[in-house]
């Protein structure tokens, strides 16, 4: 509940509106957006895990954010087949041989979930058709059947803690990332 209440405060700050006045609607996959009689161009995403809350807000561009506590009890080999393309699975398998096995898996997971939250579908249809791969130290989003077909999404890792993996996806090729502490707004 606190995560959603703090989101209302943050959106209220940007919209110069009372938090309780902000209303939401959802698309067919459950992605929320601001319901407004005005043409509101604010886009937002919310994620929380183990008490850590991340919000992302932008003007005009769709976006998604995800954070996950890196849990040692999960076996990446059991889960990697559920949402990753074969190319991503192969890349993860090579990385899973190292000491950062859990972090590697959860970072790949948060990238994928942030992307699909941004697209507005969640981890559902088409998740294994789109891949995120590294090229010249950048993360590139492409269609698995045609890697040359790059999609206009940027994905970036958020290094917020050694205990969490997090990623942000934005529907544009370049963007400026700015961190704000809104704890004084919502406490």
Which descriptors would you attach to this protein?
Ribosomal Protein L22, Chain A, alpha+beta, 5 helices, two-stranded antiparallel ribbon, single chain, 187 residues, five-stranded antiparallel beta sheet
What does this 3D model show about the protein?
- With 187 residues, the chain is α+β, with helices and mostly antiparallel strands.
- The chain folds into two domains: 2-65 and 177-186, 4'-phosphopantetheinyl transferase domain (Ribosomal Protein L22, Chain A); 70-170, Ribosomal Protein L22, Chain A, CATH 3.90.470.
- The chain is built from five helices and nine strands, in the order αβββββαααββββα.
- The chain has a five-stranded antiparallel sheet with strand order 5-9-8-7-6, with helices on one face.
- Strand 3 (42-49) and strand 4 (52-59) form a beta hairpin.
- It starts with a helix and ends with a helix.
- 28% of the residues are buried.
């Amino acid at each position: 509940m606190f995560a959603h209440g703090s989101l209302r405060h943050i959106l209220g700050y940007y919209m110069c509106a009372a938090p309780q006045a902000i209303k939401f609607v959802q698309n067919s996959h459950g992605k929320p957006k601001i319901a407004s009689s005005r043409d509101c161009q604010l886009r937002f995403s919310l994620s929380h895990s183990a008490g850590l809350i991340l919000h992302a807000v932008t003007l005009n561009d769709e976006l998604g954010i995800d954070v996950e506590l890196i849990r040692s009890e999960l076996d990446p080999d059991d889960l990697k087949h559920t949402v990753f393309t074969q190319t991503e699975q192969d890349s993860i398998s090579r990385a899973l041989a190292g000491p950062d096995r859990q972090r590697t898996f959860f970072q790949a997971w948060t990238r994928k979930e942030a992307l699909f939250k941004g697209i507005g579908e969640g981890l559902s249809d088409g998740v294994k058709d789109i891949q995120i791969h590294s090229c010249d130290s950048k993360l590139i989003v492409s269609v698995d059947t045609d890697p040359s077909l790059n999609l206009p999404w940027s994905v970036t890792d958020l290094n917020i803690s050694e205990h969490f993996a997090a990623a942000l996806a934005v529907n544009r090729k370049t963007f400026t990332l700015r961190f704000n502490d809104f704890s004084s707004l919502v406490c």
